[in-house]
C-alpha cells in the first residue's frame, strides 16, 4: 500500500472513530424527552420539585411539563407554582435557560388525585389525553401518622384514579409510579419484584368510602396488623394496583429509600422540610433532642434526592429505549447495598458539625444526649430531659407574658420519634441489581449528568451544607448571625 493510500486509510478511520466517539457522548436520556409532554403529580413536593428542576435543566428540549396542583391554604394553583419557581432550587436553571423559557415549559393543571377524574376540567383533560406521553405519579401523603381513611384516599385510591386516567391517554409510552423501598416491611431483604399486598386494595378502598373517619379510626390498628403506620400500608396497596396493570400499561414501579437533602446539584444541602434526618439534625442542634430509643449500630438506607431523581430519569430512558419486555418493571433507588452508615455515625457527625462548623441560633441546651437501647431508661431520660424542662420553660413564658410553646414542640418531637424508633431498631437491605445494570449502559456524558454510581459523599461537607440550608430555608436564620451563634454555643 502506497504512503498516500495509508494516509487516506488512517484519515477515513479517524473520521469514523471521531463519529463513534461523538455518538457515544450524545445524551440519550435528554433525547428521550425531546419534544415530549409530561404529566407529573406531586410536583410541588420535595422530590417532585427536584424532578421538575432536573428535567428543565438537563432535558430542556422537552415540549411541556403539566403539573397537577390543587388549591392549598387558600392559595390558587397558579400562585403555588409561582412560589415554587421563586425557590432557590430553581436559580441555576433560570440563570442557564432564562426564566421566561422555564415558565413557558411548565403548565398548571388544577386538580386533585383525591377527586374522581382527578378533579380536572374537561378542556384540560382533552389536552392531556392528546399530548401527554409520559406520567410520573409522585403525589402521596408522606405523614406516617396520617389517619388511615385519608391515607387510603390519597395514596391508594389516588393511584387507582391515576391508572384510570393513564388508560385514557392516546399516546402513553411510560407510567412511573413512585413508591418507597420501605413499603414491604415484613421482608428484610427486598428484591426488585412485586410483592403481595397486605389486603385487597379494591376492598380497602370500598370499605373506606363506605365507613366514616371515626369508624375507620376505631378499627385502624386491626386493619394495619403488624404494619407500623398507614404510609407503608397504603403504599403497599398502591403498588399492587400498578402491578395489576403491568400487562395493559407501559408501567414501572420506582422505589426510592429514605430521601435526604440534595448532594450536588443544583444546591448542595437543599431541602424544604424537616422530615427524616433533617428534623433530627435541627432538634439535636437546638438542644431540644436529648434522648432516643435506638440501636445505634443499626443503619438506614439513605439516598440524596438528586441521585434518586437521576435514577428515575435513567430508568425512564431504559424502559423507553428497550421496552417493558426487556427491562425489570420494578427498580430500586437505594444505597445500603454499597454504603452503610450507622445511626451513631450520623448523629455524632451531625453533632460535631453543629458544634464546630455551623451552629444554630438560640440553642436551648448544648447539643448532647445519647441513644438508649433500653426503652425504660429512655422513658425516664425523656421525662427528665424533655418534658420537665419543657414545662418549666412554658411556665416562665407565661410569667413573662409570652404564649407557651415548648410542650407543643415536644409533642411533635415525641410523635416523630415514635415513628423513628421502629425504623431505627430494625434493619432492611435492598437489592439494587437493576441500578447496577443500568450504570453499565450509560456513556461518559450521561454518567456525569445523571449520577447513579456509588455516591462518594464527604459527610462533613454534606452535613455542613445541610445545616446551612436548614438555617437559611427552614429556620430563616441569616448567615450574619452565625458568629453570634458560635459565641452562644461557647457560653
Short description:
The protein has helices spanning 3-24, 28-33, 46-58, 77-85, 91-97, 99-105, 122-131, 148-167, 201-210, 213-218, 220-224, 230-244, 277-285, 305-322, 343-356, 375-399, 406-424, 433-439, 444-449, 459-474, 482-490; strands at 37-41, 64-69, 106-110, 132-137, 174-178, 189-190, 251-256, 258-260, 291-293, 302-304, 330-333, 370-372, 429-430.
What can you tell me about this protein's structure?
It catalyses: a long-chain fatty acyl-CoA + 2 NADPH + 2 H(+) = a long-chain primary fatty alcohol + 2 NADP(+) + CoA. Its EC number is 1.2.1.84. It is a multi-pass membrane protein. This is Fatty acyl-CoA reductase. This protein is an alpha/beta fold. The protein has a domain at 28-269 and 301-333: Rossmann fold, CATH 3.40.50.720. It contains 21 helices and 13 strands. It has helices at 3-24, 28-33, 46-58, 77-85, 91-97, 99-105, 122-131, 148-167, 201-210, 213-218, 220-224, 230-244, 277-285, 305-322, 343-356, 375-399, 406-424, 433-439, 444-449, 459-474, 482-490, and strands spanning 37-41, 64-69, 106-110, 132-137, 174-178, 189-190, 251-256, 258-260, 291-293, 302-304, 330-333, 370-372, 429-430. Helix 8 packs across helix 9 (201-210) and helix 13 packs across helix 15. It is globular and about 65 Å long. The N and C termini lie far apart (85 Å).
Amino acid at each position: 500500500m502506497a504512503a498516500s493510500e495509508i494516509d487516506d486509510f488512517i484519515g477515513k478511520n479517524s473520521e469514523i472513530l471521531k463519529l463513534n466517539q461523538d455518538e457515544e457522548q450524545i445524551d440519550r436520556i435528554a433525547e428521550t424527552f425531546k419534544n415530549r409532554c409530561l404529566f407529573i403529580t406531586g410536583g410541588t413536593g420535595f422530590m417532585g420539585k427536584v424532578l421538575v428542576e432536573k428535567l428543565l435543566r438537563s432535558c430542556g428540549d422537552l415540549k411541556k411539563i403539566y403539573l397537577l396542583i390543587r388549591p392549598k391554604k387558600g392559595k390558587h394553583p397558579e400562585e403555588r407554582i409561582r412560589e415554587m419557581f421563586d425557590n432557590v432550587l430553581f436559580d441555576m436553571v433560570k440563570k442557564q435557560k432564562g426564566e421566561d423559557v422555564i415558565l413557558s415549559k411548565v403548565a398548571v393543571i388544577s386538580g386533585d388525585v383525591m377527586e374522581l377524574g382527578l378533579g380536572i376540567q374537561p378542556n384540560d383533560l382533552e389536552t392531556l389525553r392528546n399530548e401527554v406521553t409520559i406520567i410520573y405519579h409522585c403525589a402521596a401523603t408522606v405523614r406516617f401518622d396520617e389517619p388511615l381513611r385519608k391515607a387510603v384516599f390519597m395514596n391508594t385510591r389516588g393511584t387507582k384514579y391515576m391508572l384510570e386516567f393513564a388508560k385514557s391517554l392516546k399516546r402513553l409510552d411510560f407510567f412511573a409510579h413512585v413508591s418507597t423501598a420501605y413499603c414491604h416491611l415484613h421482608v428484610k431483604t427486598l428484591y426488585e419484584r412485586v410483592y403481595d399486598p397486605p389486603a385487597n386494595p379494591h376492598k380497602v378502598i370500598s370499605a373506606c368510602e363506605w365507613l366514616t373517619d371515626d369508624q375507620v379510626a376505631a378499627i385502624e390498628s386491626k386493619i394495619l396488623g403488624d404494619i407500623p403506620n398507614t404510609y407503608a400500608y397504603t403504599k403497599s396497596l398502591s403498588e399492587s394496583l400498578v402491578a395489576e396493570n403491568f400487562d395493559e400499561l407501559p408501567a414501572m414501579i420506582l422505589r426510592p429509600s429514605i430521601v435526604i437533602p440534595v448532594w450536588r446539584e443544583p444546591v448542595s444541602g437543599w431541602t424544604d422540610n424537616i422530615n427524616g434526618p433533617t428534623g433530627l439534625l435541627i432538634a439535636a442542634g437546638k438542644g431540644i433532642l436529648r434522648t432516643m430509643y435506638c440501636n445505634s449500630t443499626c443503619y438506614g438506607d439513605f439516598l440524596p434526592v438528586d441521585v434518586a431523581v437521576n435514577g428515575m430519569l435513567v430508568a425512564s430512558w431504559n424502559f423507553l429505549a428497550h421496552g417493558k419486555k426487556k427491562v425489570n418493571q420494578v427498580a430500586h433507588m437505594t444505597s445500603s447495598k454499597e454504603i452503610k452508615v450507622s445511626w451513631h455515625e450520623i448523629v455524632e457527625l451531625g453533632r460535631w458539625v453543629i458544634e464546630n462548623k455551623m451552629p444554630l441560633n438560640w440553642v436551648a441546651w448544648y447539643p448532647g444526649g445519647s441513644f438508649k437501647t433500653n426503652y425504660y431508661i429512655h422513658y425516664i431520660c425523656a421525662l427528665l430531659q424533655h418534658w420537665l424542662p419543657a414545662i418549666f420553660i412554658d411556665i416562665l413564658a407565661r410569667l413573662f407574658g409570652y404564649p407557651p410553646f415548648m410542650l407543643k414542640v415536644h409533642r411533635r418531637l415525641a410523635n416523630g420519634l415514635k415513628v423513628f424508633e421502629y425504623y431505627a431498631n430494625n434493619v432492611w437491605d435492598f437489592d439494587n441489581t437493576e441500578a447496577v445494570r443500568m450504570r453499565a449502559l450509560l456513556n461518559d456524558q450521561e454518567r456525569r449528568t445523571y449520577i447513579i454510581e456509588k455516591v462518594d459523599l464527604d459527610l462533613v461537607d454534606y452535613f455542613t451544607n445541610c445545616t446551612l440550608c436548614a438555617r437559611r430555608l427552614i429556620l430563616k436564620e441569616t448567615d450574619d448571625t452565625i458568629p453570634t451563634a458560635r459565641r452562644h454555643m461557647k457560653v
